[in-house]
Amino acid sequence: MPEWRIPFFLIFRHLRRGSKWTLALIIFLMAIAFVNMVFASSLFNGIIATSNANVIETYAGNITIYPNAKDDFIARTDKELTKIRAVDGVKAATAHYQLPAASMKFKNIKSTFRLIAIDPSNEIQVTNISQKLISGRYLEANDSDGILLGAQVTGNEEAATRSFKGIKVGDIVKVTLQNNTEKNFIVRGIFYSNYIEADYQTFTTIKAMQDVAPYLRNQASSILVTVDTPGTEPKVIDGLKARGVNGDIHPWQDSAGLMKDVTKSFVSIDVILSLVATLIAAVTIFIVIFVDITDKRSQIGIMRALGVRPYLIHAVYVLQSVVYSVAGVLLGAAMFFGLLVPYFVSHPFALPMGNAHLVVNVGNFVLRAETILWVAIFSGLIPAVMVTRINMLDEIRGK
Amino acid sequence: MSLEPIISVTDLYKTYVTDEVKVEALKGVCLDIARGDFFIITGRNGSGKSTLLHQLGLLDRPTSGALILNGQDVNTMSEKERAAIRVRELGYIFQEYALMAELTALENVMLPAMMTRPMAECRASAKDFLERVGVSHRMYNLPRQCSGGEQQKIAIARSLVNGPAVIFADEPTANLDSIAAQEIMKLFRSLNEDESHTIVMITHEQDETTYASKLLNLADGQVESNA
Q1: What is the CATH number of the domain that holds B164?
Q2: Residue A302 and which of A95, A116, A261, A286 are 20 to 30 A apart at CA?
Q3: ipTM of the predicted structure?
């Protein structure tokens, strides 16, 4: 089959001796088409990843254990914590004791927010709220009247209604529980996690809780668990159940709430945008190859006159398209990873679910690269087949 | 010279239909071309010269009639078989040289040979033919770096590289000055007389008809004279 050398021979010469500007422009167009396909998907991945990380790191841990349906609390919390920490794959665990706060009052503003008592030393091993302070300091275990407020509570973010607008570190918040017990708490710090659900929370210590609701001691409303390796939640849940942990055990996804629906919508939007991007890429590549082939009709006619069979001419243009698309994908990947990803790491998109940057899913990335390749192959093949069906003499004359 | 016909044409018709207008370019042409002939076709513009050459060179199919090439009825052959014959048995020289712009002279000449032969052999053969037509000094030049005469010589070398039975030349000197044209015609004579190549050529130039061993004059798609 010596004739199969011809397409490679011609392509190599074309790349060496054809117009470098035209070649650069075609490859650049391919790269842009590829980046266009990857960008939206990576942005959605980034938003989803940020949202998921926020749910885990500020709100739910990797696993959340709630009381069983028939119980109001997780009884003997300390013993349960010991059992949980002994399970393979568990990194840390912390108990949340939700105070039945009827109301909170700052100056004349009366409102209601979740007030959760925590052991600060356990909490920092599970959530990263301690790293999200925008003023003041974190709670200490022996603090008997301190309170931490989320940014939505303080009115820093406009979403909250009846927020404590203007509250600052050192101000007093009066908490009234359902049994009418009252206690003044001093604002120790304000945190802003950029995850709206977490920023509606307020935290105090177990020591402070004991003043107003001593009956809650060892009666957690939930236990948050982090795992050694993300993704191993189902296996760890099996371990917790096998160990006889008392409670209703859920992976973090069940706490995602609204974000679950948003994620589903993003996946649908991503599919639609990917189809549109593929169509744009296909049309762009088709036009580029078609113009290139039309420009060379006379040469194609000469090749046919010399006895070069049409399938070899098709192979020339398919090969050319493969070269263009592979170079385009490589350039696009270099632009994406070299420019766009670092840029959006330093300038992330500020969204209600957190700051999002571009996150690449390797499978999606490869799929899109393959799509560009196949689109290019068909965009090269179709005009080549069309041209080789024209009368050979018309081709030679460039008609 | 042998009288054995390498090409035999009987009652050849070619009709083009463009925008529902029928044009009869060839009307019952009959001719024989013997092996070793220097066969020149002349005629006025629109007389059907190029159409006839394209049918003889298997670049187009006639509407009707018989065309026997080297003892084979080529009209009944598939396009694949005709392409194989074009590679092995026929050589072409076009008025506009028709060289591949991105290939050097050497590569242009190698191209038809690459269909059938090993690379090293193609290269050696192409070098040899470029030398024989007198443009070996342009071996590594692109067509645009060569004069018109040199480009036509490269095209001649390309037409020879597969050792064709017949060389077809469509007004090969039309774009050349008189000196270059004369060189090309001398080259054709040498190929015909010294190497016994059968040449079928179209020309408008009266003085070039003196090179012919056979001269066919076409008028309005019909043979006016065949001597």
Answers
A1: 3.40.50.300
A2: A286
A3: 0.86
